[in-house]
Design goal:
Blueprint lengths: L15 E4 L3 E6 L17 H8 L4 E2 L8 E7 L2 H12 L4 E9 L6 E5 L2 E3 L7 E3 L7 E9 L3 E8 L6 H8 L13 H5 L6 E9 L6 E5 L5
Length: 217
């Protein structure tokens, strides 16, 4: 099992992009957990930082610790139920930006590879014929010296889905210390994966909500 060194960033402490009586939207930095783990040292996370100011804050979904970008939290049980249902029923739209190794032959495509837990190497995931359905759309934005900037739109929301799908395609995300080899890990100071856009329906009014955050790499 990989040893987890946790040193969450403190500046900015919270980057709140929107708040009302039902929801809070933040731009989570890379290196900050979405919610606490079992170990005491993982208490500092996006959820507990928000709960220090807004005691009613409830976790709805997660981003990997190393992934940055847009997250939405609920402020009451009705909002929590509505948002979780939207995520579960694939009624939300999510767009990620990633910097990956290599150049693509096809400018766009769809990755349909089922995923399952890698029981020999937790918490890693792996491609498995007996795993859960996982679908990702990709589109190349630009290509440079043996690396590419791609837009990723996951249809499903499996653990580490984008990281494993990119690795399986032969284009591991730069800076990925879970699925990359030493050159990949050393190619960037952080995982080059950012949750750029999130769209959903407001849990109270039903109004379409859309939030975006420019990728920091």
């Amino acid at each position: 099992m990989q040893i987890f060194s946790y040193q969450p960033p403190s500046i900015p402490w919270l980057d709140i992009r929107y708040i009302d009586r039902d929801i809070i939207v933040i731009n989570k930095p890379s290196g900050l957990l979405s919610n606490p783990g079992i170990a005491e040292y993982t208490h500092d996370c996006a959820l507990t930082r928000l709960q220090e100011r807004f005691k009613d804050c409830i976790l709805v979904h997660r981003l990997d610790c190393a992934t940055s970008g847009i997250m939405v939290f609920a402020r009451n049980k009705k909002a929590e139920s509505s948002l979780k249902t939207q995520f579960q029923n694939r009624q939300t739209q999510k767009t990620y930006i990633a910097e990956v190794a290599g150049k693509f032959t096809d400018a766009s495509g769809v990755i349909e590879l089922a995923l399952a837990a890698d029981k020999a190497n937790p918490p890693k995931q792996m491609v498995s014929e007996t795993g859960k359905t996982a679908i990702t759309h990709y589109k190349v934005i630009s290509q440079g010296d043996n690396k590419s900037l791609v837009e990723l739109k996951p249809v499903t929301g499996r653990t580490h889905q984008l990281r494993v799908h990119m690795q399986a395609l032969g284009h591991t995300i730069l800076g990925d210390d879970f699925y990359g080899d030493e050159p990949i890990i050393n190619a960037a100071k952080r995982l080059q994966l950012h949750a750029k856009e999130l769209s959903f329906s407001h849990p109270y009014s039903g109004k379409p909500m859309h939030f975006s955050s420019a990728h920091p790499f």
